Predict the 3D structure of the following.
Amino acid sequence: MSSPCFGSAENIVLIFSEHHNWLQKILRRRLGNASDAADLAQDVFLRLLLKPRNFDSLAGARAYLGAMAQGMCIDLWRRKEIERLWLETLNAQPKPVAVSAEHCAVVLETLFQVDTMLRALPVKVRTAFVMSQIRGLTYPEIAVELCVSVRMVKKYMAQAMLHCLVLEVEHFGAI
């Protein structure tokens, strides 16, 4: 007799009914917030519906759901930290800056995308890119800070720029 498959839409309903309350309780404890916990639990099951997975048991499904929820918690915390820092930056401006909710949403979404792009780069490549593009350091200055050659900084920057170009092609199509 073959083991059950828990990846079909019908079985996702079973997984939901078996694990939704457990997952929401775990998330509520991690996040300290019932509203965020409910949203993330819903997102976990939505992702599972959009990209079904096969599980050999309900315990395997629970382990997967827990791991997915943990990753989503980390993403939520990262997004909240980016939002907090951006709002602090706005508040630190010498003149009060009035930003519409729509503009705020666009800026935050852009910041989240940049964060995702930067996290996909190796640490030294990311660091060199930020030093160059955000801090305005020259390649020789970056080389000194990273304890590498200027040639290596050029390689890091080429790798970062290639990554940006690939993302642009993926997002906007052929250039």
